[in-house]
Amino acid sequence: MGASSHTIINTPAAEPVPSLVGLLPERLEATLGEAGIPERQRRMRARQLWNWLYVRGATSFDEMTSISKDLRLELTGQFSISRPEIVDTQISQDGTRKWLLKLSPGVEVETVFIPDAERGTLCISSQVGCTLNCTFCHTGTQPLVRNLTAAEIVGQILVARDELEEWPAPGGGAPTRQITNVVMMGMGEPLYNFDNVRDALLLAADGEGISLGKRRVTLSTSGVVPMIKRAGDEIGCMLAISLHAVRDELRNELVPLNKKYPVAELLEACRNYPSVSNAKRITFEYVMLKGINDSASDAKELVRLISGIPAKINLIPFNPWPGSPYECSDWDQIEAFGEIVNRAGYASPIRTPRGRDISAACGQLKSESKKIRASELRRQQAASEG
Ligand code: SAH
Ligand code: SF4
Q1: Cβ neighbours of residue 229 under 8 Å, at least 6 residues apart?
Q2: Which of 3, 162, 222, 328 is the S-S candidate for 7 at Cβ 3.0 to 4.6 Å?
Q3: Which of 182, 191, 255, 287 has most ligand 1 atoms within 8 Å of its beta carbon, as the pocket-test mutant?
Q4: What's the pTM value of the predicted model, to 2 decimals?
């Protein structure tokens, strides 16, 4: 592909057949056009495909019986609709499930499903690894391997639906859905992979497909200020901000991106988030680190900072990982912190750690994938062929 030997591969190493998954309706139609489908048929064919992929969960063109055999054959030759491959499944004592998914040779990512009394949350990833090095986060210790494509982001939802048996049986009604919410809170910084994340989340919300609705889709960012407005304008989903500290000095240390986009700018972007209203509160995530960010004075400063923003504060007990440099705050301390925030009129739920026994809790995700150079990949391929 003309890559010099110094180019770092930042797209799938080999994508022999283009995927139809993850294309929004207009792109899907255009792609069918490029494949020679006559113009007068494109819209209808795109609608049929959309329904097979996202309502019925088809995994092959063969199943798409409302499409003629000839066309099915033609599509099979030109496109893929395959899912990421499950390499490993772990199920926690508390019912949380974690899947390790293979996206392309040597590239793996984690997806987590968290069932709860009244909802089921699927936590999906946007990147393999992360370029940001938040000091409390395990993913942050894995250098960025690459961005996920929209197909791979949507693919995580499709795989989870396969595994949870959520597709309607042929001729039957739809089973009860376990996945009620999708949160972009897995590996990576979603606003550093904006276009793919946007397309995937719009697709997940779409009422004629996966049908979650925009209020059940949440994007979490560590604070890429210039992209927050675009997220509001172009996706319009719920927003979560990984705040974690209320003073620049400490936040610079915990979330180094703060040096670029300090607290005041971040909160200004939140105030201007297009869909902020009482109905659509912003969630602030605050990891509780013992003796670091958990004092009463931190809580008071937090309340002062967010005043005027319709907000909810998620207090996240720190989840340890091998070699992590912090301890989780004591329970009393977390409760006292929450009490101050709550008395100021903000909901401040303490997030119950889920799936800790399988390293599926917030900030524990990491895969073994490493970034490899094009030259190294060619060497490996040559070696395996020879
Ligand atoms: N990169 C985005 C999306 C990941 S969301 C972001 O940072 O927002 C994952 C959430 O878990 C973030 O709020 C993150 O700050 C938090 N987190 C990371 N490591 C954690 C840990 N060890 N314990 C608890 N929460 C953690
Ligand atoms: Fe990346 Fe988010 Fe982890 Fe920070 S907390 S290193 S932005 S995944």
Answers
A1: 269, 272, 273, 274
A2: 3
A3: 287
A4: 0.92
For residue 20, which amino acid is it? L
Q: Which amino acid is at 23?
A: L
The DSSP letter of residue 122 is: E
CB neighbours of residue 48 within 10 Å: 15
Nearest atom in ligand 1 to 183's CA: 5
Q: Which ligand is nearest to the CA of 243?
A: 1
Average pLDDT value for the chain = 91
pLDDT digits (tens, 9 = 90+) for 259-316: 999 999 999 999 999 865 556 899 999 999 999 999 999 999 999 999 999 999 999 9
- Is the CB–ligand 1 distance for residue 187 below 6 Å? no
The pair of structure tokens assigned to 366 is 């990491």
Give the CA dihedral 49, 50, 53, 57, nearest 10 degrees: -120
Catalytic residue (choose from 29, 108, 110, 189): 110
Given a contact cutoff of 8 angstroms between Cβ atoms, the answer to whether 110 and 188 are in contact is no
pLDDT of residue 8 exceeding 80 = no
Query: Under the phi-then-psi rule, with left for phi > 0, alpha for psi from -120 to 50, and beta for the rest, what region is 236?
Result: left
CA of 305 to the centre of ligand 2 (A): 22
Q: What is the secondary structure of 226-295 as a DSSP string?
A: HHHHHIIIII--EEEEE---SSHHHHHHHSGGGGTS-HHHHHHHHHT-TT-BTTBPEEEEEEEBTTTT-S
DSSP output for 171-192 = TSPPPPPS--EEEE-SSS-GGG
Residue 87 has pLDDT above 70, yes or no: yes
Span 322-344, pLDDT tens digits: 899 999 999 999 999 999 999 99
